[in-house]
Structures are given as structure tokens and as C-alpha cells.
Amino acid sequence: MIKKYGWPLLPALLLSTAAADSKIPLGEFSQNQLNGWEQKSFKGETRYHLQKLDGVTVLFADSHASGSGLFKDQVIDLEQTPILNWSWQIANRLPGLDEQSKAGDDYAARIYVVAKGGLAFWQTKAINYVWAGNSAKGRVWPNAYAGDHVMMLALRGPEAPLNSWQTEKRNVRADFKQLFGEDVRHIDAVAIMTDTDNSGRSVSAIYGDIWFSED
After folding, report:
1. Nearest one of 90, 77, 74, 68 to 27, comparing CA atoms
2. Per residue in 148-157, pLDDT tens?
3. How confident is the model at residue 96 (pLDDT cuts 50, 70, 90)?
4. What is the reported pTM?
5. Shortest CA distance to 153 belongs to which of 166, 87, 170, 164?
6. What is the CATH number of the domain that holds 47?
7. Mean pLDDT of all residues in 56-62
8. Containing structural domain, residue 169
9. Which first-to-last residue range defines the signal peptide (predicted)?
10. DSSP code for 53
11. Is-contact 67 27, C-beta < 8 A?
12. Which distant-in-sequence residues (6+ apart) come within 8 Å of 15 by Cβ?
């Protein structure tokens, strides 16, 4: 059975290759576009939909005991554009979960970046940037299902305000180096997920545009 860590192991078509541009768009939600994003369900379906908020189109995610996400296959050259940019907010938290356990592997919001191992699928690595409900900002731990093939990094924790935009910039190449000790020069896919399939709870999040840049 494919679980949440299964995305990095899925074979994927090369949809597009990032050129050495200063900005590589992935999620152009403000343009009312979901081009190239596909939904994968692990248990039930989180509802993802584009809707205007304060005059700008954004991506809403509503999960009710469900675990599904949106993923996009796109090669990004981290030597040219290593910086991942996005904004997000959540409407409620998921308190009381042990996020290092399988039973607590639910998050109001998360973004995956995946470096695939090709035929050597066991060499696939992924980083999960998460909005944690119980783990402090900056905490790192291996995924409960995938072990040290997928590292979790809490960018926001229980101290972060609700219903308030938070803007993120991550040097993905540097993060792979720090978390895996490897110089990863490109990634192959990005995924978004808001999920509550393990806890059976409900949570909502909103995602703004997602793009890579030089700095």
C-alpha cells in the first residue's frame, strides 16, 4: 500500500525542465492556474480548490479525516535557482499529536521537495517543510513511515498565529546538504499536502504562489 512517503518512489514523467531563469513558477495560483498539478489520494480526498481571498486567487485546502495531496513533476536546477518561495496560512491546529509517530503524521500544511534516485529508488530523498502542530519551529526529524529517506523540517510551530500569512524562503540545496549530507543539484518534483487521515480530525490551510528563484 502506498503511504505518504510513496511519492518519492513513484515513477514520473519529466513534464518540464527549469532553465536558468531568475524565477521558475510552480504554483501560479494567483493566475487561477493549477496546470501540471495532479492529485494523489492515500485515504479519502482533501479538497483543494482555487478561490479569491482579499482580491487574490489562492489555493484552499480542507481535510476531514483525509490524506491526499497535489504533486507536480518538474525538474529544478538548484545550481541556478536554489531558493523555494511561498506563503501559507492555517485556520486551525492539530494539537496533541506525536508527529514523530505514524499515528501523528498529520499536518495542517506541508510542502515536499523530492530528489529522485532514478532506477535506484532507494536513493530517493525528500524534504517535508511542515507547519507543525506540536513541534517547535526549526525542529528536524525523520518521517515516521519513510525513515531517514524523508526528513521533516518544522518551519512553523504551535506558536505561529492562525489566519495570518507567513512567507517562506528556503535554500533547498543548502537544506539537502544539511539534512542528508549530499550536494543535490536538482530536484524532480514538488508536492503540497494538508492531511488528517491518521488522526481523523479536520483542518484547513491556504497556499499562495510557489516558485524557485536565484536568491
Report:
1. 74
2. 999 999 999 9
3. very high
4. 0.89
5. 170
6. 2.60.120.260
7. 99
8. 4-213
9. 1-20
10. E
11. no
12. 36, 72, 73, 74
How many residues appear in the chain?
215
Give 3: exposed, middle or buried? Use CB within 10 Å, 0-12, 13-18, 19+.
Answer: middle
The CB density around residue 11, as the number of other CB atoms within 10 Å, is 9
**Which residue's entry shows cell 499562495?**
208
For residues 108 and 136, give the distance between their C-alpha atoms in angstroms, rounded to a whole number: 15
Give the distance between the most distant pair of CA atoms in the chain. 46
- Which element (helix H / strand E) includes 76? strand 67-77
- Phi/psi at 118 (5° precision): 65, -135
Q: What share of the chain is helix, strand, coil (3-state, %, to 5)?
A: 10, 50, 40
* Cell output for 2: 502506498
Q: Domain tally for the chain?
A: 1
Going edge to edge, which strands form the sheet with 67-77?
Answer: 38-43, 67-77, 186-195, 107-115, 125-131, 147-156, 140-143
